[in-house]
User: Fold Glucose-6-phosphate 1-dehydrogenase from Sphaeroforma arctica JP610.
Amino acid sequence: MDSPLTIVVFGASGDLAAKKTYPTLFSLFVHNFLPQHTQIVGYARSKLSKDELIKKITPYIKPKNEAEKETMKKFFELLSYVAGAYDDGAAFKNLNDELVKWEDNFESAANRMHYLALPPSVFQPVTTHIKAEVMASEESQKWTRVIIEKPFGKDSVSSAVLSNHLASLFTEEQIYRIDHYLGKEMVQNLLIMRFANAMFQPIWNRNYIECVRVTFKEPFGTQGRGGYFDEFGIIRDILQNHLLQVLCIVAMEKPASLDADDLRNEKVKVLKAIKGLSMDDTVLGQYVASNIPNDEDSKLGYLDDKTVPDDSKTPTYASTVLYVENERWDGVPFIMKAGKALDERKADIRIQFKDAPGDIFSALGGEVHRNELVIRLQPDEAVYMKLNIKSPGLRSRPLQAELDVTYKDRFEDERLPDAYERLLLDVIRGQQGHFVRSDELAEAWRIFTPLLHDIDAGLVESHDYAYGSRGPSLGDDLAKKFGYKYHKGA
Ligand code: BG6
Assistant:
């Protein structure tokens, strides 16, 4: 029988817990992925009753049918709540006493999983007190795993301070740094696509690939999260972690195995081969109000968010270029772009191959297009390859078409779990491959820190763009400058 599992959600009364952590745990419960004996204990400063907690999280838990509604009631039975400060040893002792009351019902000691749905300002005291008061029994060989969410610092130095602090308390095997992009279906799919298809091996390099583009677009602004966002900006929020992780998987060599460290060793090698970024090849932007019919939010620019200082220069859009200076990739630009309040919700990877040499078809009319492999992370997970075919019928000019695996058409009945669900299950199973290791994190900060400091010092110009637009037009110019050819829909 599985050992009992205690899950503590620190910051249980907050937004992240309500919107992500509890719904994810519910989903794991519905699909029978939690151990038979599990308790889920919320901990936060607010004095809440269990009923009040349930009231807070219920709007975000979405049972799909009557049976799941019943299951939701059973899920609520697993929950409890303890109030306490984040820097008070006695409160953590009290938390531990509460955990033990339930754990004592079982013969076997319990494992413990601590989820920090907390702002970074309290990471240090909370982890210190976890170590002092709330670890699982080592004597009974039970594990304690601590899950933390970005931001892991603001630059190389602050991140190293946090890493050193965590390393003084826990082993690397106990620390799970979440980057939820690593839990996305299509990011995980990349590994299989790249390393299980022989046809990609000979062409996945500088000889055949002209450029790679990784894009993240969101069609809404800060939505009241301006206070958090303004301190970090789009580079720390999206590029330094989510997009860089995606780049690593596109660029890495085949790992010796799928073991967590083999995987992460290869990612670290990619990061080490990225020397840095150029301020001259970076475009920054901040959105301003526009007036999209039926979209009230569009009337608010970034600076209209009450939680954002009036003179904030924080970028809500950034596009930049990275080079992986190794044998496989030298000279191939990786163009990264991320923005809020843009024209659509989309995250994708576009691998653009070189032009086919020796064009013999232009005389026929039509245009020979580059091959492009697109991996669409969201919405509508898909992999498709743009290629040239003969236009059907009597005409014989080239026509661009797609070999298309769109998941919702191909796997109609398959449930694609949310990224968090996959990752929390990995934590329960002790699989760290899709979590960020401390050396990876340090390299990621090394790459971005000089640029971030220049931005913080006001040395990089920022361009206004209208809410709901494609972002500053200089962003598209940058992609073109680095060899990207736009197709329809790119
Ligand atoms: C988070 C960022 O990490 O990712 C948010 O902090 C962003 O600003 C979110 O909205 C995007 O995640 P997803 O899964 O919706 O692409």
Q: What stands out?
A: The pocket of 6-O-phosphono-beta-D-glucopyranose is lined by residues 180, 218, 237, 347 (CB under 6 Å). The mean pLDDT is 95. The longest strand covers residues 209-217. The first helix runs from residue 15 to 30.
